[in-house]
Inverse folding.
């Protein structure tokens, strides 16, 4: 080994490392400096329903979403990438889903959420069909999986956390991911063909093609007048996705269970109790935030005012009464 | 090497802690594999994300614990002094378990969405992959890393001028481990910045600091095992580390392709991270060279299995598999799929895990005062871990390839239950190989903790040694590996690596993008299967040649001096190459595992040098007497 030569070579290597560190720092600073062409989206400037995306980032981290999902492709590959979820499914679907993530929302419930968002002045398509056309991800989810169980655990997000997450997904949608994930250019028929094969292989049935749980049209079902009101109510509870949050077997999911509810004394967050009579049940369906049951959160359940007829409310009450 | 400094024994509780953390960590891995098969398993009770947080964090913690054990064990020899103060070592051990206990309490808080936000600082846990702990964990770990760095540095010579490359390597390693960790504490308000700094910690650990520690430890251990020259090891360590930094510093930007940072990173990241395999090839090449340096049999072949495995998996897992997905137009498809997990498992456990397990074997042998032990269980565990890991990696690669097609090409999503069924066979394979892996780990832990039971008494060892006689013919598979052959094997591994790379790139083809996966399935199938097979064969071939060489060294060592014929050079002229020629002639008449004695009136360095030039490393050269009147050397023929 020529020691002089080796010494020189080593000195050179250390110099080169120094120069590369310089390049690294310059590129990094430039990366996070706004230019005319490129402005980084900021979480503090993006809000949904008055909650900032920064809060959403904190919620996203608090629940460690990244160790099941991926975000900008980083994470656990166990659940969907969420970077573009807002563009795909839109706020009404997200609000409906995040309220009870153990179940995929039905068209009806997305519609209810849409109406409430519209009444708050959000700039969204005026009716559910236009909404589903704009947000094709919501359309597909409602059509294929509406009302069936999702694999996600039923995390009990508060209303504020849900809004915060939606704000965060608005933010992540604005991130310029440089063309990732790559655009799908395969023909729809090819995709559909492969999708069917995979569904057959795993025995998955789409809700739109399954007769047991129709995902749209609350009216269709109430026409079955031959059934008892309680049975109609049971069917309705499924369609409206009531059962996504309220169990019939006494277990607490997102909201209190229906079992043994009627006639019981319900403790409220105010410290008072209220008797669960018909009037209470009706109020809880139409103005769910009027009384909040102890240990549960305000603002998670949407109001069904204007979404269900008087007859349907009665049917639901009969159904709840039947669960003793 | 045998225990020289009493404080070397302080390493033992760290190795035991490491093994406990290791088995817990991989049990979480098996749980995750089961959850992949049945996603409803424990849902709502112990969610997938929490299990994964444990799986990732414990992986980091047990490997770092292994580094601590290894450095405490070799540090006194390297620095020629005991570690002090001893109480601080105990504090470090307590701190380690405090962090683990605290993480067990805080990580599951994610299930309730509690991060302990005060302002923009998460005090309890922060839900960032690999760095899931909160600020309190960060501070505890920082204290631990600082103590570790301090303890390491006090063992080294006071005057920095007296440091050699190994001192520098470890010093950069332990200080780097501590400093890089600080980046986890930078509060960020945007995802792009969060990910930018998250990769500072993750990338600069595994692709810089840990690699620096890895190279230095391997260099040191092999120098001790095979008596390699300090200067040569120093050379390998300096250039190894330089190559790591030269490629890995800007190579970090392969994480900045799609996170909201500018597109120029695609150029820098692709170029420099494609160079990252260079130091890894350099490293395994030196492992090969060092192994041939040994002229007396080593006492712990099992430890060398693990260390070789570490260098091999670093080359294949970090080097080859990293390369297949690092360039922007391959990464575009691979990013966010199981292919990343294939690379991650082999690189992390393969490179760093196997190294500290190998070090644990040597430390346990010395600390328990064992001369030789029965290595059957150790080698069995090695091959079980090896095959388990290969299978885990293969399963991820197989599942990931299908995932790219269904998720990226067809644009189908998880909610539609399309991706899960497409990957279902891969998940079953994953479970099977994860079980084999765990079995290997259980054997290893049992073996290490009860190593004393497998001690071979001196008289038994003598009997075993005497049974070894020189083999008449040498099996092709056991023959010594020439540099050329070694190069061909590495070339073969890279060939299959390039095939996989081509397969990942082929997702860009129009025909694939419109829905026909035949080309990538075919190319990646050949590539991955070939890569796994050639890596297995190569490891087997290399280790069997190593065993054969060690056996022959033992056979030659067995000859008592009286048994050997003597070649007396005293009467021969010392110059003109006559003495060299005589030795060479005599050598050429030897069969494998035979030897003769050379006696000379002057030092025989010249003869050794000449023989080395002609015969390479195929001869044993055991110096028995060094003057002043006569020099005696035992020369034997190796394969």
């Amino acid at each position: 080994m020529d020691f002089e030569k080796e010494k020189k070579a080593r000195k050179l290597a250390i110099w080169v490392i120094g120069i590369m560190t310089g390049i690294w720092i310059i590129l990094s600073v430039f990366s996070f400096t706004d230019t005319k062409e490129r402005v980084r989206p900021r979480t503090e400037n993006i809000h949904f329903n008055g909650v900032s995306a920064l809060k959403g980032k904190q919620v996203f981290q608090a629940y460690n979403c990244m160790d099941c999902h991926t975000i900008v492709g980083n994470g656990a590959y166990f659940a969907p990438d969420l970077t573009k979820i807002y563009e795909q499914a839109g706020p009404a679907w997200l609000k409906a889903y995040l309220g009870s993530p153990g179940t995929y929302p039905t068209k009806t419930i997305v519609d209810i959420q849409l109406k409430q968002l519209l009444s708050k002045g959000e700039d969204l398509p005026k009716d559910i069909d236009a909404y589903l056309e704009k947000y094709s991800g919501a359309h597909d989810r409602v059509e294929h999986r509406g009302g069936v169980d999702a694999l996600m655990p039923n995390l009990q997000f508060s209303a504020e956390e849900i809004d915060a997450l939606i704000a965060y997904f608005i933010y992540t949608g604005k991130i310029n991911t440089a063309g990732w994930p790559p655009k799908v250019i395969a023909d729809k028929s090819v995709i559909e063909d492969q999708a069917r094969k995979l569904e057959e292989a795993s025995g998955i049935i789409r809700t739109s093609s399954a007769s047991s749980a129709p995902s749209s049209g609350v009216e269709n079902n109430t026409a079955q007048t031959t059934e008892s009101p309680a049975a109609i109510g049971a069917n309705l509870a499924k369609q409206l996705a009531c059962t996504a949050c309220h169990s019939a077997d006494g277990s607490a999911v997102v909201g209190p269970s229906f079992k043994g509810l009627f006639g019981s004394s319900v403790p409220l967050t105010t410290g008072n109790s209220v008797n669960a009579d018909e009037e209470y049940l009706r109020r809880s369906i139409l103005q769910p935030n009027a009384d909040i049951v102890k240990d549960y959160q305000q603002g998670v359940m949407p109001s069904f005012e204007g979404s269900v007829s008087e007859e349907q409310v009665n049917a639901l009450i009969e159904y709840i009464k039947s669960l003793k | 090497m045998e225990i020289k400094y009493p404080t070397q024994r302080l390493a033992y509780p760290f190795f035991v802690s490491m093994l406990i953390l290791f088995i817990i960590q991989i049990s979480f891995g098996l749980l995750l594999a089961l959850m992949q098969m049945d996603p409803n398993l424990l849902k709502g009770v112990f969610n997938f994300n929490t299990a994964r947080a444990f799986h990732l964090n414990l992986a980091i913690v047990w490997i770092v614990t292994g580094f601590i054990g290894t450095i405490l064990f070799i540090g006194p020899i390297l620095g020629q002094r005991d570690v002090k103060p001893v109480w601080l070592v105990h504090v470090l051990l307590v701190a380690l378990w405090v962090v683990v206990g605290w993480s067990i309490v805080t990580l599951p808080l994610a299930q309730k969405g509690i991060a302990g936000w005060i302002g923009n600082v998460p005090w309890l846990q922060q839900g960032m992959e690999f760095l899931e702990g909160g600020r309190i964990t960060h501070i505890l770990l920082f204290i631990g890393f600082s103590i570790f760095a301090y303890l390491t540095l006090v063992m080294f010579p006071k005057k920095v001028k007296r440091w050699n490359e190994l001192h520098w390597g470890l010093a950069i390693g332990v200080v780097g481990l501590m400093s890089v960790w600080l980046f986890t504490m930078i509060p960020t308000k945007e995802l792009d910045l969060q990910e930018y700094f998250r990769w500072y910690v993750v990338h600069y650990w595994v692709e810089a600091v840990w690699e620096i520690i890895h190279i230095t430890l391997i260099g040191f251990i092999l120098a001790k095992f095979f008596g390699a020259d300090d200067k040569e090891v120093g050379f390998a360590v300096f250039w190894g580390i330089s190559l790591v930094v030269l490629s890995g510093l800007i190579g970090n930007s392969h994480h900045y392709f799609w996170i909201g940072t500018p597109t120029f990173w695609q150029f820098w990241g692709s170029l420099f991270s494609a160079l990252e395999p260079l130091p890894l090839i350099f490293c395994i090449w030196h492992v090969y060279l060092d192994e041939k340096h040994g002229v007396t049999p080593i006492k712990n072949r099992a430890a060398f299995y693990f260390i070789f495995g570490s260098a091999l998996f670093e080359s294949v897992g970090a080097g080859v598999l990293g390369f297949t997905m690092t360039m922007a137009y391959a990464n575009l498809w691979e990013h966010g799929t199981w292919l990343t997990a294939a690379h991650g498992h082999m690189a992390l456990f393969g490179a760093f895990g196997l190294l500290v397990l190998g070090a644990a074997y040597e430390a346990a042998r010395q600390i328990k005062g064992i001369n030789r032990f029965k290595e059957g269980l150790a080698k069995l565990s090695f091959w079980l871990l090896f095959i388990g890991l290969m299978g885990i990696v293969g399963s991820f690669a197989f599942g990931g390839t299908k995932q790219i097609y269904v998720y990226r090409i067809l644009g189908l999503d998880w909610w539609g239950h399309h991706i899960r069924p497409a990957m279902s066979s891969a998940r079953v394979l994953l479970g099977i190989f994860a079980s084999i892996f765990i079995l290997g780990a259980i054997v290893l832990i049992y073996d290490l903790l009860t190593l004393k039971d497998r001690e071979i008494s001196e008289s038994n060892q003598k009997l075993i040694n005497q049974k070894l006689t020189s083999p008449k013919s040498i099996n092709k598979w056991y023959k010594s590996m020439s540099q050329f052959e070694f190069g061909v094997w590495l070339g073969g591994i890279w060939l299959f690596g390039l095939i996989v790379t081509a397969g990942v790139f082929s997702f860009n083809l129009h025909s694939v993008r419109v829905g026909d996966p035949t080309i990538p399935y075919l190319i990646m199938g050949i590539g991955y299967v070939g890569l796994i097979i050639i890596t297995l064969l190569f490891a087997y071939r290399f280790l069997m040649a190593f065993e054969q060489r060690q056996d022959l060294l033992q056979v030659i060592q067995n000859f008592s001096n009286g048994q050997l014929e003597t070649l007396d050079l005293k009467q021969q002229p010392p110059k003109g190459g006559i003495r060299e020629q005589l030795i060479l002639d005599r050598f050429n008449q030897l069969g494998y595992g035979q030897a003769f004695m050379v006696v000379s009136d002057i030092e025989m360095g010249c003869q050794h040098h000449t023989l080395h030039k002609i015969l390479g490393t195929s001869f044993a050269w055991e110096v028995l007497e060094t003057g002043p009147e006569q020099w005696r050397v035992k020369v034997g023929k190796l394969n």
Summary: The beta strands of chain A are 47-48, 51-52, 70-71, 74-75, 265-267, 273-275. The longest helix of chain A spans residues 3-31.
